[in-house]
Write a structure and sequence with these properties.
alpha/beta; 6-stranded parallel sheet; 3-stranded parallel sheet; 14% strand; globular
């Protein structure tokens, strides 16, 4: 079994990836880290380090001591949070990446996963069925950092032979953790409000269509990518992946089938402009061709699972 380090493990993706990889590889083979102390009970089952990814010495010490084979580098500032502090977002997203890449070279880490995002696209990108290879002119510091990171992934692979793999995540939806400051966060919060019997105020316009994915699909895509033979990985920037596309009005109407009294209002803020610059649907046929990607959750199935899970917690 590989020895794995996850950075940013306490976040939305990291929490569920930790659970899945520990079931797959064993608690002792999955080491987690984050700049904050974990609050979730799952982190008590294995080893956890407090780590700021900008602290290169601390990172080196962990990699050396743990003899890590694979790194899942998830630590980042997301789109909405990044716009509040662009310089800090660039520092964390890019300098953190360089620390991971250089440390991976130094300690001969076999594989690195680094997440990109649909935020690499911008208003000049084709909005429908956005191709794998297309115009990418992002308008947020998050998107700019992700586009730059894709280039560096490609560079480190071809220049140094570092096996970095990446996915362009769409909006991710999960019932296990709260969202972490992204533009697609409404699609998580809306379920919480419905189950609590509260009205929901959406920060996007009702007809804003965005690509989305249920977290189970996202975690499976990540692991399938990392476990694929190297010769199958033809894209060394980042792969398009997606599952479903919907608007706030469409997800609201789907939830209303289960909660008929649920009400929504719309009060767009600065995140509307970010969302309007992103694609409405994604072509992920390259991932399907190269390593067999296929989603399992559509809007109806995801809604049912989300509402059932949150109702059990309520």
């Amino acid at each position: 079994m590989p020895k794995v380090l996850i950075t940013g493990a306490c976040g939305q993706i990291g929490t569920e990836l930790t659970l899945t990889l520990r079931k797959r590889y064993g608690d002792e083979n999955v080491v987690t880290s984050d700049f904050k102390e974990p609050e979730n009970e799952i982190f008590k089952e294995g080893k956890h380090y407090k780590l700021d990814v900008l602290d290169r010495k601390r990172l080196d010490d962990i990699l050396k001591f743990e003899e890590v084979d694979h790194i899942y580098h998830l630590a980042a500032l997301l789109s909405a949070k990044g716009e509040e502090n662009p310089q800090r977002a660039w520092e964390i997203n890019m300098n953190g990446f360089f620390n991971i890449a250089e440390a991976s070279r130094k300690f001969e880490v076999k594989k690195v996963f680094w997440p990109s995002s649909i935020a690499v696209f911008g208003p000049t990108t084709p909005v429908n069925n956005t191709p794998q290879f297309t115009v990418a002119e992002p308008t947020t510091v998050y998107g700019i950092s992700k586009l730059a990171g894709e280039g560096w992934c490609n560079y480190y692979y071809h220049k140094f032979g570092l096996d970095i793999r990446s996915l362009r995540y769409p909006g991710l939806i999960s019932h296990k953790t709260l969202p972490g400051g992204g533009t697609t966060d409404y699609a998580v919060d809306i379920f919480h409000k419905a189950v609590k019997g509260e009205d929901f105020e959406c920060f996007l316009e009702e007809d804003t269509r965005l690509p989305m994915m249920y977290m189970d699909d996202a975690i499976r895509a990540t692991i399938e990518l990392m476990e694929s033979p190297s010769e199958n990985i033809k894209v060394r920037t980042s792969y398009n992946v997606t599952a479903i596309s919907f608007t706030p009005k469409e997800i609201y109407n789907t939830i209303k089938k289960f909660y008929p009294e649920f009400k929504i209002t719309y009060n767009p803020d600065f995140r509307q402009q970010i969302a309007a610059s992103w694609p409405q649907s994604i072509d992920d046929s390259q991932a399907a061709k190269d390593w067999g990607w296929k989603n399992e959750f559509d809007l109806e199935k995801m809604t049912k699972v989300m509402l059932e899970a949150l109702s059990e917690k309520a």
